[in-house]
Design a protein that fits this description.
alpha+beta, six-stranded antiparallel sheet, two-stranded antiparallel sheet
Length: 227
């Protein structure tokens, strides 16, 4: 009888030790997860800073000089905010500030699922109430005309297809041409050389004005480079 009680006591103690070890493991796992999350945030923040720099360098490049000159002549200032990104989504925010008003524009790259991606272009006078537009599309042209006029946009960018072309061109270094094609189809594929180049989209008759300097490596796509 005494031996049975001793065995039962040992089993009870063993169960208690197992529970204590499980509790300690859960605590350690939680602390490890927090440290990993903190490292990922720090790493992603450093990466986003570098990707912001790539977008700014691209905006200052020679191929986009036509847009910079037109905007400057119209008195419109351009501000590119810090890129925000993760493996699921990356956003470029651009603000066009005219003498009478402004336009906030977002280029949003999203991973919708395995092998599924989307690109969303949004613009509006209020950053909290942006309207969606499609690359090189005239859908929503009337709404854009009002926004463009209120912000004193230059004539070339009062055209909605031209404005969306510029937005994509600004953000182009963040994705490869193949990845953008997976997001929006071949609309921004360009055919021809130099001044003769035209886009596949917009009925294949829209000349390229703001060339896209796409990323060259798949590892530069947002879903591959963030933690």
């Amino acid at each position: 009888m005494a031996r049975a009680e001793s065995v039962a006591a040992q089993l009870k103690r063993t169960h208690e030790l197992v529970r204590e070890l499980e509790t300690q493991k859960m605590q350690l796992d939680g602390e490890l997860a927090q440290k990993r999350a903190a490292l990922a945030v720090r790493s992603n923040g450093q990466l986003a800073h570098g990707r912001t720099s790539a977008v700014v360098r691209n905006w200052c490049s020679e191929p986009l000089a036509v847009a910079r000159v037109a905007l400057a002549a119209a008195g419109v200032r351009v501000a590119i905010a810090a890129v925000e990104g993760s493996r699921a989504c990356e956003t470029v925010r651009v603000r066009f500030e005219g003498g009478r008003g402004c336009v906030s524009a977002h280029v949003i790259f999203t991973r919708a699922g395995a092998g599924a991606y989307t690109c969303t272009l949004r613009a509006g006078a209020d950053a909290d109430a942006l309207r969606a537009f499609d690359p090189l599309s005239c859908r929503g042209a009337d709404a854009w005309a009002g926004l463009a006029a209120a912000a004193d946009m230059p004539p070339v960018l009062c055209s909605l297809p031209r404005f969306t072309e510029l937005l994509v061109a600004i953000a182009a270094p963040l994705v490869t041409a193949a990845r953008f094609r997976a997001m929006a189809g071949p609309v921004m594929d360009a055919y021809g050389v130099g001044a003769a180049a035209v886009y596949y989209g917009h009925d294949g008759r829209m000349p390229v004005m703001f060339p896209c300097a796409w990323a060259v490596d798949d590892n530069d796509n947002f879903d591959c480079c963030y933690e």
